[in-house]
Amino acid sequence: MTRLVVFDLDGTLVDSSQDLAAALNASLRRVAPATPLLPLSEVRGMIGDGARQLVARGLARAGLGLSPEEVLPVFLEEYGVRLLETTRPYEGVAEALDALVPRRLAVLTNKPGDMSRRILDGLGLGGRFFRVLGGGDLGSKKPDPEGLLLLLAEAGAAPGEAVLVGDSAVDVRTAHAAGVRAVGVSYGLGPESLRETPPDLLLDDLRELPAHL
Fold first, then answer.
1. 194 Ramachandran zone, left/alpha/beta (phi>0; psi -120 to 50)
2. In 10 A of CB 195, how many CB atoms?
3. What is the pLDDT of residue 175?
4. Phi first, then psi: what are they for 190, rounded to 5°?
5. Is residue 48 over pLDDT 90?
6. Which is catalytic among the residues 8, 15, 19, 137?
7. What is the pTM assigned to this prediction?
8. Which runs of E-coded beta strand occur in 119-178?
9. Strand partners, 15
């Protein structure tokens, strides 16, 4: 019996890649105006390990010798005004969440927690989750299982009564570190990493999930 379903955010529930790419490019051009724009296809492969890592990868790709700590505040400012310009739920997400009732639902993401909650609330999805944990809410980030273990405790669920749904190897490692089953989605931002670190179950459509629980 699955009592708790925890979701990654970017690449699993929502496609935020265009807004993240626009914010990253705007940030790089603010600190180095002649920086060529990074294409969306490249930025998509940089997403998933939190804002600092996205900035670090963008700086490296652009060949800029600045520290991520210098540019991170600029990125957070640029992204903060773009959170919902193009970001939308993937097809079938709302239906899948509705079909998972009465299980408890939560989000565990490396995106800053305040931004994650603003995005979910802005898309009308926030009320479906009893907790949304993101970067800055804890002392660690995925694949450290701290956040997932906290969600298990708050939901009163044993590891065997939960699944973590995500689009990358980071999510698989997080789930397994907590003794939780990992469900992967093939449509996200890091499907190639799921071939290297396979989940316990791989779905092409989130609407398939309830039937497996």
1. alpha
2. 11
3. 98
4. -130, 45
5. no
6. 8
7. 0.94
8. 131-135, 162-166
9. 88
